[in-house]
């Protein structure tokens, strides 16, 4: 299930591309509010933590259902239940037999942002090459902290904070509560300092000569 989940994440990130930082910000902020509501506040309305219950409740194995319908016995009737919805499961470091879960959305949605900034870094490099007429040396590009490096570091720190919080509070934590601020806020700050925020926010891949952004896709 973990291998299938990772494959789905890679496929989704490879196929879906966010057009601008504005769309990325609105999408991640909306999902953050959605995640926080269902983890922290759903129990006040539905008398149970809906997100945790859905994520931890095993699903019926289709082989088991078919075996009962056709009145078959043996191994098919005793097929194990499936761990659905799809998620990544990690053994807990402090509690034997317990597992930590990471939803695929907590990987895909920040991953789409990382893919966007990686494309923008490639766009800036291509624009510089067109303007200078030569490939920039390692000191001019490689020594700088790119938007991708900033967001990737933020994702790592956000995921680490979410893991520590789950272990400290002994309760389910919405990963996006930590991932979104740690990835989005440093990126917005860095773009503002570098003067790229306005372009990244609306039309990041429009070149001065009117070329389409598709020419700079990676």
TrEMBL record:
<dbReference type="InterPro" id="IPR006639">
    <property type="entry name" value="Preselin/SPP"/>
</dbReference>
<dbReference type="GO" id="GO:0098553">
    <property type="term" value="C:lumenal side of endoplasmic reticulum membrane"/>
</dbReference>
<dbReference type="InterPro" id="IPR007369">
    <property type="entry name" value="Peptidase_A22B_SPP"/>
</dbReference>
<comment type="similarity">
    <text>Belongs to the peptidase A22B family.</text>
</comment>
<dbReference type="GO" id="GO:0033619">
    <property type="term" value="P:membrane protein proteolysis"/>
</dbReference>
<feature type="transmembrane region" description="Helical">
    <location>
        <begin position="26"/>
        <end position="46"/>
    </location>
</feature>
<dbReference type="Pfam" id="PF04258">
    <property type="entry name" value="Peptidase_A22B"/>
</dbReference>
<keyword id="KW-1133">Transmembrane helix</keyword>
<dbReference type="GO" id="GO:0006465">
    <property type="term" value="P:signal peptide processing"/>
</dbReference>
<feature type="transmembrane region" description="Helical">
    <location>
        <begin position="147"/>
        <end position="169"/>
    </location>
</feature>
<dbReference type="GO" id="GO:0098554">
    <property type="term" value="C:cytoplasmic side of endoplasmic reticulum membrane"/>
</dbReference>
<keyword id="KW-0812">Transmembrane</keyword>
<protein>
    <submittedName>
        <fullName>Signal peptide peptidase-like 3</fullName>
    </submittedName>
</protein>
<keyword id="KW-0472">Membrane</keyword>
<feature type="transmembrane region" description="Helical">
    <location>
        <begin position="175"/>
        <end position="193"/>
    </location>
</feature>
<dbReference type="GO" id="GO:0042500">
    <property type="term" value="F:aspartic endopeptidase activity, intramembrane cleaving"/>
</dbReference>
<dbReference type="GO" id="GO:0030660">
    <property type="term" value="C:Golgi-associated vesicle membrane"/>
</dbReference>
<keyword id="KW-0378">Hydrolase</keyword>
<feature type="transmembrane region" description="Helical">
    <location>
        <begin position="99"/>
        <end position="118"/>
    </location>
</feature>
